[in-house]
Amino acid sequence: MYLVADISVEICASKSCKLCTQYCPEANTILYSEEMGRDQGFKYGTAYVAVDRCKGCAQCVWVCDNMAKNNAIKMIMIDQLPKAALTDNITYGEKSTTAVLASPVVG
Amino acid sequence: MSLDYVKFSNGFEKFMPKEYRDMVEHGPFGKKVSVSQMGSFKEILEEHPMCAGCAMTLFIRLAMIAFPNPEDTITVGTAGCGRLAISQAAIPFVYGNYGDQNGVASGLSRGLRLRFGDKPKDVVVMAGDGGTADIGFQQVLHSWFRKERFTTIMLDNEVYGNTGGQESGMTNRGAVLKMAPLGKKFEKMDMLQMAKVAGCAYVATVVPNNPRRVESVIKKAVLIAREVGSTYIQAYTSCNIEYAIPTDKVMEDAKTVENDRYQFSEYVSEEAKQYLTERYGYKEFLPKPAAPAAAIPSKA
User: Fold this and answer.
1) Which residues 35-64 of chain A have a CB within 8 Å of chain B?
2) ipTM of the modeled complex
């Protein structure tokens, strides 16, 4: 198993700084959804990770902890995530994306 | 090279992979995108084999977003880490022999102007410090002296990271590397000064811990290269493998290095300033309004 980034919706959707989307070295990996977060009653949308593309560098953790001071991102073993976003389940819209969360581990 | 080459052929849409469909329908082609929208649109850079946490990868990602017209852009590269990602973007990439990237780009840039006339087709060279300052040095400098109209970006990781850690001309004096165990004995090459002496219209240094600045610098360099002359960007993109930087400390290192020896600098020739102002509406080069004269105390 290996580590991937996991973003706390509670914290992210209350702050919505979007810094992690700009600092992740991998393209199309940390995405932003206007719906996820708002549909749970929070003020903003939230960033989320397409875990099949995450290489586990934890740069987003440093950015979130030290630049944004939000402490919303943790590294978690991929099999400890009950549900996560995967590239195949992500839909791009005009100004946002949506993801149907599913188990990241097959079998 | 146009918006047409990213469209589906009739009847083939349903057979294309999801990533491709997303890119055509929600990519940056034909639109204006910026770093503030990152995470909300499909980027043209795809999965690639570069190391986890690589600052060069981040810089390339930002560069692809910063190109003013990605559908009218061709990138040129050479051997080195960067080409592993640059070649995985949905814009044409020309892979030169080692060191000839600026020669290839010169011919390409001239050919595109002959073929497409006034319609801008941007050529952007992205190569490492070895490809630019060592092995490609002669062709880089000559392209600048000839004032070839394309952008040269050095991805400066201060080492030959792809081949095990040999010192390059851009390695700092005293740096000890796996294949330079006694430490480098010479100073880092001053490519910025050489670019100015060779007549580049725009010269800038940048570090990827400021995405908006990277975007701004690349946009200006590409636009100036359309008509005014050669442009050069030197970007610090650390090698976390050869310099043993933990991946979660890569941005901390970038910040430290920026404060220490890689401060942001920008040289814009007068002609380039005028061009950006008049052609693209840049306001930052307009003459600053004179400060209001201090009130003269009236004599009692």
Assistant:
1) 47, 53, 55-59, 61-63
2) 0.96
